[in-house]
Amino acid sequence: MENINQAVLLIIIANVLVSMKGFNDYSFLDKYKFQVSRILNGEKIRTITSGFLHVDWLHLGFNMYALYLFGDIVARILGIPDFLIIYFGSLLAGSMYSLKYHKDEPYYSSVGASGAVSGIVYASILLYPEMELYLFFIPIPIPGYIFGVGYLLYSIYGMKKQLGNVGHSAHLGGTMGGFALTLLLNPILLSTNKLMVILLAVPIILLLIFGDKLKNL
To answer: Which stretches make up the Peptidase S54 rhomboid domain (predicted)?
Structure first.
């Protein structure tokens, strides 16, 4: 990690420290996790603090590894200020989408940096569409956009099945936030990477149109 951007490293450290506190102190986790009823009753800070908490080391490790892989690309291409705008904007977008999707479930709760990381993943693919990834035991490189769309589809499945205490709906909101903010901050991508913009926009548009119907499937 010797070449990692300092802003990315600081966010990873913050996630590790806050998550470790939550692992060992349930009252701390309960006070700062995402919970619909508490947020609607005025505890808006939970929309941000929940993004620095995780359910366990595996959950934390997966998110921080993804941030390490993709965050450095965004920070180096756009600079630290824009990286931070996309990171925290995606985190907030993920929380807002979760709040909208689960508004009738007062006790719904979740934690994780997934919303912010999802936004960063999509941002990095927009900025560097030719990237290829080697993942786990897969011996051939996977195009970054395949990973991005696959991650989004997994999140839709997880949101439908409500898998674990992980904010799958936040993945989706964060993806939308990262996509929109990246194009807003770097609109030239609309012409230079038009095909990639369209490809990544399709599942987002479909989600916006049909997302509310997922609960009834």
So the answer is: 42-185
List phi, psi (to 5°) of 36: -55, -55
Q: pTM of the entire structure?
A: 0.88
Q: Are strands 142-143 and 132-133 parallel, antiparallel or unpaired?
A: antiparallel
How much is the pLDDT for 202? 82
CA angle 173, 127, 152 (to 5 degrees): 30
Structure tokens at 66: 């993804």
For the stretch 11-22, what's the b/e string if a residue is b when 16 or more beta carbons lie within 10 angstroms of its beta carbon?
bbeebbebbeeb
What whole-number distance in Å separates Cα of residue 135 and Cα of residue 156?
21
| CATH number given to 6-216 | 1.20.1540.10
What residue has token string 């990692």? 4
Q: Does residue 112 contact residue 63 with C-beta atoms inside 8 Å? A: yes
Q: Which of 145, 117, 132, 124 lies closest to 203, judged by CA?
A: 145
